[in-house]
Fold this sequence. Notes:
By secondary structure, the protein is α/β, with parallel strands linked by helices. The chain has a domain at 15-149 and 173-202 and 252-260: Vaccinia Virus protein VP39 (Rossmann fold). The protein has helices at residues 15-36, 54-63, 77-86, 120-129, 155-171, 182-188, 208-219, 221-224, 232-242, and strands spanning 44-48, 68-73, 89-92, 105-111, 131-143, 192-199, 202-204, 248-250, 253-260. It has a seven-stranded mixed beta sheet, with helices on both faces. The radius of gyration is 18 Å and the shape is globular. S-adenosylmethionine is lined by residues 3, 6, 8, 10, 19, 22-23, 49-52, 72-75, 94-96, 111-113, 116-117.
Amino acid sequence: MARQSYLLDNAWAQGRARLDAVEEFLDPATIHVLSRVGLRAGWRCLEVGAGGGSIAHWLAERAGAGGCVVATDIDTIYLDARAASSGFEGRRHDIARDPLPTGAYDLIHTRLVLEHIPERDAVLAALAEALRPGGWLVVEAVDYASAVPVSALGADEHARSQSLRLREFEAAGAKTDYGRHVPAAMRALGLVNVENEARAYVMRGGSAGARWFALSMEQLRGRLTGPGKLTDAEIDAMLGFFDNPDWAAISPMIVASWGQRRAD
Length: 264
Ligand SMILES: C[S@@+](CC[C@H](N)C(=O)[O-])C[C@H]1O[C@@H](n2cnc3c(N)ncnc32)[C@H](O)[C@@H]1O
C-alpha cells in the first residue's frame, strides 16, 4: 500500500480524476521533452510512479513491438486497467525500497514523484545506475518559486491555503523546490549532456491545472483543517475559486531535467 510519505494516494475516490487533470495539464510538455531526447523504436523504457499511465502508453507506442516499457507505481490500480491494451507492463514497485536492474534501460522517465520521496537522492542514484550506457534519465519535478496569485479575486486565500499545503507536504518529507536541484544532482552522479527546461502556466479557474489543485486540496482537506489552519468553509471558498474562470494564479514550475549515462 501507499507509503506514509506520499499524501495523495491513488486509491482515493477521486484519485483517477486528479491523475486525469495532471495528464491533461502536463502531458504535452512531457511529450515535447521526451521527443527531444530522441526516443526511438526498440528502446527499453522505464516509467517510475506512472500514476494513470498516459505517458507509459505514449512510450509504448513509440518504442514499438521491438522495444518494451515497464511502468511502476506503489499503487497500480490504474496501470493494471490499461497495461495490456496499451502495450506496457504495469509493475507494483516502491522506488524508495525495491531494487532496479542495473544497466537495463535506454530511457527512464519520472514526473511529480521524486519531490515526494524523502530518499530522493538515493533514488536518483539508483535510476542513473539503471541506465544502459548512453541511456537517458528524464526527471520532471515541481518547484513552487513561480506559484503566486494573479487575480485579485481569491489572491489572499490562495496564498494562505497554498502555504499551508506546502507546509504539510514538507512535513511529510516532500521537497517543494526540488525541481531546481535536479540538474546539479544529475551532474554529481556523472551523467553527461545535462539540460533542463522549466515551464509554468497561468492557471484559470476551471482549467486542468486548477482542477489538479482543487482535487489535491479536497484530498488533503483533513490535514489542512484544524487549529491554526483552515476552516471547512475556507476550503470550500477556495474550491469555488479554482472553478471560477475569473480566478487565476501561476502554477508551480515543472522543471524537466535530462541527462545521459556516459557511453562506455
Ligand atoms: C502526483 S502522481 C504523478 C503520476 C504520474 N507520474 C503523472 O505525472 O501523471 C505521483 C505518483 O507517484 C506514485 N508514487 C508515490 N510514491 C512512490 C514510490 N515510493 N514508488 C513508486 N511510485 C510512487 C504515486 O502512487 C502516484 O501514482
